[in-house]
Amino acid sequence: MGMFKAVRIDKAEKGTTVALTQFDEAELMEGDVTVRVEWSTVNYKDGLAVTGKAPVVRRFPMIAGIDLAGTVEASSHPDWKPGDKVICNGWGMGETHLGAYAEKARVKGDWLVRLPDGMTTRDAMAIGTAGYTAMLSVLALEKHGLTPKDGPVVVTGAAGGVGSVAIAVLSKLGYHVIASTGRTSEEGYLKGLGAAEIIDRAELSGAAKPLAKERWAAGIDSVGSTTLANLLSMTKYRGAIAACGLAAGMDLPSSVAPFILRGVCLLGIDSVMCPIELRKQAWARLADDLDKTKLAEITQEIGLDEVIEAGSRVLSGQVRGRIVVKIS
Are residues 149 and 254 in the same domain? Predict the structure, then answer.
């Protein structure tokens, strides 16, 4: 047992406090696998946790961070042995279970996915929950029956983590991708990822009509609220929207018209408690369908001591693409 560095969140009289500090390994929670964390990342939910702007954390003290990749140090789980390279996303890490912004983590072996061949732990966290969620969305659209010949796919929050990976994957698969962003200065970046068209998010921010002109066969939405309502109203007959985020809010000011008059489907994407077999499928597809050159273009690296500040920047929409956090 020993001490290690961690980003710790504590309950305060008003809200929470957060600091990079020393944490005692003896205080780690129950789990049958101990991982030496090598890389993590900063997601929207991590930003909410470290800033205290939403009640994401439900246990104190908490080590923040919902994503990790690293090497197994110790295991009593039959599937894992010391030296194995693993990925862990979600499962309540950073919310109810001590999380990833630390040099060590103890988790359940059933939560882990083996690092795909040809992928480094840094690659895995450059993808992170955001990219894994994007792939879950692509898988859901494929299960719905979507193919490139069906028409364009719109991606909202295009310059963010989910959006950036979604564009890169969809374009490699042959889809005509329409990128919706509030940062029109990022047009070159988005087209470099494979977007065929760029639209201003203002086109999707007004009050939604029950039905509007059909514009796309499908979409991946990380924004929610009025944006999602507009996407649904503009989706082609028997199309589908994969909803995976709420950056603009949890409400959905829509109507049943797209569902009962055009047969549109709204596909809910959950990355936190997603079944392990689907996780394995998503990570295997990411290893095959995400261009590593594009992954490098969307990624910036920081240290553990920069996580708190980065969380604020993510929430304010100042981050393009993905942030990887070098832990050790």
Answer: yes
If phi > 0 it is left, if psi is from -120 to 50 it is alpha, else beta; for residue 90 that is left
* DSSP per residue, 205-225: SSPPPSS----EEEEEESSBH
For every one of its 328 residues, what pLDDT tens digit does the chain have, with 9 covering 90 and above? 589 999 999 999 888 999 999 999 999 999 999 999 999 999 989 999 999 998 899 999 999 999 999 999 999 999 999 999 999 999 999 999 999 999 999 999 999 999 999 999 999 999 999 999 999 999 999 999 999 999 999 999 999 999 999 999 999 999 999 999 998 889 999 999 999 999 999 999 999 999 999 999 999 999 999 999 999 999 999 999 999 999 899 999 999 999 999 999 999 999 999 999 999 999 999 999 999 999 998 999 999 999 999 999 998 888 888 999 999 7
Residues 82 and 165 in one domain: no
296-308 burial, b at 16+ Cβ within 10 Å, e below that, comes to: eebbeeeebebbb
In whole angstroms, what is the distance from residue 17 CA to residue 23 CA?
A: 15
Number of domains in the chain: 2
Residue 253 within a domain: yes
| Residue 153 CB neighbours (<10 A) | 30
Cα(237)–Cα(216) distance, integer angstroms: 9
Q: Produce one character per residue of 24-59: b if its CB has 16 or more CB atoms within 10 Å, e if not.
A: eeeebeebbbbbbbbbbbbbbbbbbbbbbeeebbee
The domain containing residue 58 runs over which residues?
Answer: 3-115+298-326
- Report whether the peptide linkage leading into residue 61 is cis, meaning its omega lies within 30 degrees of zero: yes
- Could you tell me the two tokens for 274? 């997603």
Q: Is the pTM of this model over 0.90?
A: yes
In-domain check, residue 280: no
* Pair of tokens at residue 252: 């959905």
Residues 94 and 178 in one domain: no
